[in-house]
Specification:
By secondary structure, this protein is mostly helical. The protein has one domain. It is built from 10 helices and no strands. It has helices at about 1-15, 20-30, 30-45, 50-65, 70-80, 85-110, 115-145, 150-165, 165-185, 190-229. It is globular, with a radius of gyration of 19 Å. It starts with a helix and ends with a helix.
């Protein structure tokens, strides 16, 4: 009886959302995050494998956030192979979109010079680029977490990016500053890149995407299943 009560108390103490969950994963899964970092680094040697590496990493991080049992190496490579093609397609589509957005913003800036129009178009371009990057976070996380058709995957990732844009944008800024700090400290930051930095950035992006997916996608599916029943 005492053991069961103790188990219930420990279960209640496990954080399931918010900043407490993020801190709990960093503290209790730090060694696994280091192993995940190495896996991402090694499997991203070829450019075409980077999207699949991100998706597989997202899967491991989501299992950490959900307090599910996992094997870092076997689960990582299972999802790496399973979602390789769809991850690559997502990466290609979003890369094209981001290049077009950046090019258009640059051309508007050249054409209008330092006028109010150039500032307006540049601001719009930056916001669209931010939405694309945030949407990409969600797309890779959904590839690793929910079973959706490819069209629904793209549509939901865009909607989720806009649904909670403020919190998504804050996380994006944190990641950008994190990257900027590594660039500023280069080559001294190389050690951190090899050890932990990649998985920390993936944890941050997947964390905000995971909470949005649970809030908007999974709850919607559960309510629809309840109505059908």
């Amino acid at each position: 009886m005492q053991e069961s009560l103790k188990h219930v108390e420990q279960t209640k103490q496990i954080p399931t959302k918010g900043l407490a969950l993020l801190v709990d994963v960093v503290i209790n899964k730090f060694w696994d995050l280091m192993k995940l970092n190495l896996l991402i680094l090694v499997s991203s040697i070829f450019v075409v494998s980077i999207p699949a590496a991100i998706t597989a990493g997202c899967r491991i991080v989501i299992m950490m956030l959900r307090h599910e049992h996992y094997f870092v190496y076997s689960d990582y490579f299972y999802w790496f192979k399973k979602e390789f093609l769809r991850s690559l397609l997502v990466g290609v589509l979003f890369t094209i979109a981001m290049v077009l957005c950046s090019t258009a913003s640059y051309l508007y800036l050249l054409y209008f010079g330092h006028s109010i129009f150039s500032l307006i178009f540049l601001t719009i371009g930056v916001l669209i680029l931010a939405l694309l990057i945030i949407s990409l976070f969600h797309c890779y996380s959904m590839l690793a977490f929910v079973d959706l058709q490819f069209g629904s995957l793209l549509k939901n990732s865009w909607l989720l990016a806009m649904a909670r844009f403020a919190s998504n944008f804050v996380v994006l800024i944190i990641i950008v500053l994190f990257v900027a700090l590594h660039i500023y400290l280069w080559p001294y930051s190389l050690f951190l890149v090899i050890i932990i930095s990649l998985s920390i950035m993936l944890l941050l992006s997947t964390f905000v995407a995971y909470e949005n997916i649970v809030m908007f996608v999974l709850k919607k599916e559960e309510s629809e299943d309840g109505n059908d029943a």
